[in-house]
Amino acid sequence: MTGKDAYRVAAIIPCYNHGKMLGAVLRELAEAGISSLVVDDGSTPEEAELVRRAVRSRPGTRLLRLERNSGKGAAVIAGIRELRKLGFTHALQVDADGQHEVSDANRLIALSRAHPGDVVSGLPVYDSSAPKGRLAGRRVTDFWVKLETLSSELEDSMCGFRVYPAEPFCAVVGRRRVGQRMDFDTEILVRLFWSGCRVRYVRTRVRYPKDGVSHFDYLRDNLRISAMHAKLFIESPLHWKRALEVRREKRIPRPGGWSMAPERGGTRWIRIMFAVYRKLGRKPFELLLVPVAAVFWLTGKAAREAVGDFDRTVVKAGARVTPGGAAAFRHFYRFGLSMLDRLAAWTGDYCLGRSLEFTPGSREALRYDPAKRGKLVLTSHLGTAEVCRAIAEREIRAPVAVLMDERNAAGFSAMLRELAPESRVDVIAVDDISIGTIERLSQHLDRGGWLAIAADRTGAGTERRADHSVSAPFLGRNARFPAGPYILASLLGCEVWTLFAIRDGSRFRVDCRELSRKIRLPRKGRAGELSRLAGIFASRLGEEAVAHPFEWFNFYPFWEDGKIDEEP
Asked: Pick from 209, 484, 528, 550: most CB atoms within 10 A?
C-alpha cells in the first residue's frame, strides 16, 4: 500500500473551535490540489456550524465529527484511520489555526512520494510572533527526544505539519495508547522512529497569528508533555537496540565491502567528550567513554559479530583473547580511545620525544630527508597510524600525502577538519586517482615527501575484481586485500614500507619496515605478484593483530569464507 505506484494522500485537519480560520486553510489546500478530511473534535454548537459551512464550501472535502472533545491526538488518529478505510496510503497533517505555510504542502508530499515509508515533517522557521516560552519548551523537548532515541535525526518533534505513511502509523497506535492531546505530536514521532521509520524534514515558516486561537494550556499541557517524556525515557532502553539495528540491517557490508556502510552516529558525543578531555584531562574522558562505547556495543549487532569472528580467528593464531561480549566491548572502547588519540595528536598534545617509541631501525626509516625520494607507506585500521602523520607534519614539517576513502566516516572527518584544519592538507580521495594525480604524487615523492595509504580494506563493489583486489592468507584464512597500493607503487617507482603505530601505555610503539625496494608488475603472472605482495603485508598485519588484538578496528566481516567454524 505504500509503494510509489499506489501513493494516495489527503490532508487531515484536526479542528476544535477553529471554524473561522478553517475556511482559509481549506482554500489553500484546494488550490494546491490536495483533498481534505476535517475532524471536528467536539466543537461547540456555534463553532461546529462554522466548520460545516467551511467544509460545504469546498466540494470533495470530507467531515468526520467526534461528539466530545478528545484532544488533537485522538482527532488525528481517528482521521487517519478513516482515510485508510477510504484507500489513502498517506496523510498530511495540517493544523486548523493557520500557523502552517500550506503552500509548502506539496514540497512535503513530493519528498514523501520519493520515500513513501518515511515520515516527512516540517522543520519550523519561526518569526518574531513565536512566544518565547513555547520556543524554550521546544528546546527542552528536543533534548529529551535525542536521549530517548539516541539519535539527532529528529531535528524537531513538535511541528504538526507532516506527512505520515498510514500503515505504520496505524500499526503503532494499534499496539498501544499514544498521547491524545498536545503530547501527541512528539510521542507519535518517537514511536514511529522506534518502529523503524526514518524522519525527513522540509524547512517551512511557522507563524502565530495575532487573532489566532490556541488551546495550549501552559500548566496542564506542560505537565502532560513532562509525563510523556518520563514514560518514553523509562521505556527507551527497550527500543534503542531494535530501532538502531533496523537501520544497521540496511547497511551491513559484505566481506571487504566496508565502504557500503555509512558511519554510525556519534560525532556529537565525541565533540562533547573531547571538550571534557580538554577541560578535565584523559581520565574523565575514559570514564565517560564507558557508557558511550556500551551503547554502540549494545546496538551494533553486525559489528559485534564481526569482531567476535576476528577474536575467534586471532585466538587460533596465538593471541590472548577470550572471545565473547566483554572482548567485543573492548574493541569498541579502544576504538573510542583511538579517536581521541587522533584528535589529541593534531591539536598538539602528543610530541615526538614523549609520545613515540620506535622499534629498531624504524626511526631511521622514517627520517625525513628532502634530498632523497620519498616512500609509499602502507598503513591499516589496526592501531592509530594517524598519530605518526600528525607528529611528523607538526614537528619535523615532513610532507605526508594521504590517499583515503572517507565515505563511511564523513562526520568524524568533518569534525577533524574543523578542530585541526591542517589535518586535511594533502588528503586525496582514493576514487579520484587520475593521470594528473599520479604526476602530482610523483612530484611529492621527488621532494622527499611520504605517501600513506591503508592497505587492509577493499572498496565497495571491488571485492572480486582482480584489478582492484586480491586474495591473501591472513591469520590462517583467506581475505581480500586491495591491489591499488601495489599498482600505484609500480606506477610511481617508489619504495614501499609498512607502518604500524600501536598504543602501549602512554606511548605509541612505531614499527616501520621495508616491503619492497621497487615493485614491478609483469604482464604474465600479474595477479600472482599482487597476491604475493598483499601476502607480505597481511603477514605483518597478522603479527601485530596477534600481539595487540584489541587494536583491531575493522568492524565488518573481513574474511572471504564468512564466519569461522566453532570448535567442536
From this structure: 550
Query: Any idea what DSSP says for residue 428?
Result: E
Domain extent, residue 362, equals 252-568
What is the C-alpha to C-alpha distance for residues 116 and 112, in angstroms, rounded to an integer?
Answer: 5
Using alpha carbons, list the distances in angstroms from residue 356 to 345, 391, 565.
11, 9, 39
Residues 222 and 287 in one domain: no
Answer for the pair 71, 184: CB distance below 8 angstroms, yes or no: yes
In a domain, 197, yes or no: yes
- The CATH number assigned to the domain holding 231 equals 3.90.550.10
pLDDT value at position 398? 73
Least confident residue range of 113-122, 229-238, 508-517? 229-238
Phi-psi region of 71 (alpha: psi -120 to 50; beta: other; left: phi over 0): left
281 and 214 assigned to the same domain? no
DSSP-H helix ranges across 420-468: 435-446
Q: Which DSSP category does 189 fall into?
A: H
Number of domains the chain contains: 2
Amino acid at 342: R
Q: Pick from 379, 380, 383, 419: which is nearest to 400 by CA?
A: 379
Please check the confidence at residue 255 and state whether its pLDDT lies above 50: no
Q: Are residues 268 and 122 in the same domain?
A: no
Of residues 164 and 262, more confidently modeled:
164
pTM equals: 0.56
pLDDT at 65 over 70: yes
| CA 22 vs CA 38, 96, 210, 444: distances in Å | 9, 5, 16, 68
Does the structure show a pLDDT above 50 at 249? no
